[in-house]
């Protein structure tokens, strides 16, 4: 059920042809779909509800992907979920992760403003406000152990790994 970062980088994309990431296994995808459907009921009403659902979803990603120990600066390092751009999550992402842990690592949430600070993240959420900067942002974390997550169709085309989108069934995701 787990995928390593190396496996994700070696895979291919069915949807966009970018070829960097492989879709999650059927079992993991089913679990993720259940999580999304449970949290997406009535969520299209407000932006805050949208970001609450995205925060809940992001807080569960560490359970489905394995990061190598080399992705962390030390054995005591926190698991870093970072956001670049509009911080529409407010406190929702911090609240969703406050009781979560990944392999005995507490999860920290932080906003990054400088491209140089992104390499210290395990998950990087790239806000739609950064759509004009996708190329330099994604280039900065290329060949590192950072899972990139976005929220616009262009995100996958420029090399992002996972994209959130809404359809008639609620919040969905695409894996590049």
Could you give a short description of this structure?
This protein has helices at 5-10, 26-39, 47-60, 92-97, 134-141, 153-157; strands at 3-4, 65-66, 79-84, 101-102, 105-112, 123-126, 147-150, 162-167, 170-175. With 176 residues, it is α/β, with parallel strands linked by helices. The protein has a 7-stranded mixed beta sheet with strand order 4-5-3-6-7-8-9, sandwiched between helices. A two-stranded parallel ribbon has the order 1-2.
SSE arrangement:
Elements: E1 3-4, H1 5-10, H2 26-39, H3 47-60, E2 65-66, E3 79-84, H4 92-97, E4 101-102, E5 105-112, E6 123-126, H5 134-141, E7 147-150, H6 153-157, E8 162-167, E9 170-175
Parallel strand pairs: 1-2, 3-5, 3-6, 6-7, 7-8
Antiparallel strand pairs: 4-5, 8-9
